[in-house]
C-alpha cells in the first residue's frame, strides 16, 4: 500500500500466541498495526518484529477487564479512520467444572471473552459501516461446538462469540463489512500452558498454521472458519440442520410428543 492508502489492523491479545502471528501476517500484507495487550515488553517485541515488513506499529498497553482501558481501545476504533481490520483475539480460559469454580475468575473471563469483544465489535461495526468497508475477525473456539469436552463456562463464552459473529455478518455484509468467526482447536501457544502437553500431538496445531489457514478462509469469504475441519461440507450440513429447526423453535402449541392431544 502506498502512503495515501495505508490501512491499519487493531489486534487485541497482540503480545503473544495467535495475536502475535496475526500481527506478523497482517504486517506482511502491508497493514500498519495497533497492538493491544497487557504486557508492555512482549508488545514491544512483537512490534519490533513486525516492523521488518516496513509498516508502522503502535502498541497500547491495556487490561480489557478495566473499564477505562477498554473504553480507550473502543474510542480508538471509533475515531481512527485508518483502522479497517479488527482482530478480536484477547481471551482467557477457565478450569473445567463449575460447582467448585472460582466465580470471581469466571466473571473476569466473561469480561475478557464476552464483554470486551462485544464492545470492540460494536465500535468497529459503527466505524466500518460508516466507511462502507472493513473486516472484523472474532476468535472463537472449536469448543463452541463441543461444550461437554471442557469448561462449560469457557465454551459458553466462545459459543457467544460464534453466535455474535453469525448475526453480525448478516447485518453488516450489506454495508461492506466482512465478519469472520475463527474456531481453533487446541493450539500450541502459552494459552494452553501445561495442559496442552498432555494432549495427543495429533490434536494440537501450531499457531502459525492456524493463522495462515484462518486468513485463507477469510480470503475465500468464509463466515466461519474451522482450520482443522477437512471437509467444509460438514459445517454446511451442520448449519443446514440448525436452519431446519427454525420453523419449529417457536409455535403456538407444544409438540404432541409432550402429551398434548392432537
UniProtKB/TrEMBL annotation:
SUPFAM superfamilies: NAD(P)-binding Rossmann-fold domains. It comes from the Bacteria. Belongs to the short-chain dehydrogenases/reductases (SDR) family. It comes from Endosaccharibacter trunci. Keywords: Oxidoreductase. InterPro entries: NAD(P)-bd_dom_sf (IPR036291), Sc_DH/Rdtase_CS (IPR020904), SDR_fam (IPR002347). This is SDR family oxidoreductase. The lineage of its organism: Bacteria, Pseudomonadati, Pseudomonadota, Alphaproteobacteria, Acetobacterales. Pfam families: adh_short. The keyword Oxidoreductase applies. PANTHER family: DEHYDROGENASE/REDUCTASE SDR FAMILY MEMBER 7B, SHORT-CHAIN DEHYDROGENASE-RELATED.
